[in-house]
Hints:
By secondary structure, the chain is mainly alpha-helical. The protein has helices at about 1-15, 45-55, 60-75, 85-100, and strands at about 20-25, 40-45.
Amino acid sequence: xxxxxxxxxxxxxxxxxxxxxxxxxxxxxxxxxxxxxxxxxxxxxxxxxxxxxxxxxxxxxxxxxxxxxxxxxxxxxxxxxxxxxxxxxxxxxxxxxxxxxxxxx
Length: 105
């Protein structure tokens, strides 16, 4: 819920507010692409996802899928905050994945 993700965000990132999703990678860039690995942890506020689904007028399922895809891309090393090009790349990948899943807006 929003209260718990607020606590985690404050504790782990020093940001004193709730958010919709947090990603915590479990590796640096030193892994073999051919190996299985645990990418990391994802924390989603279902409470915030429900609020956003209503705000954007789409389903709760679509919002949870969007937040999950967004977070997994972060765990894979994509970052929308580094440059406009990186943002366009990451957001394009998100939309492509959600389209394949038939979870468009």
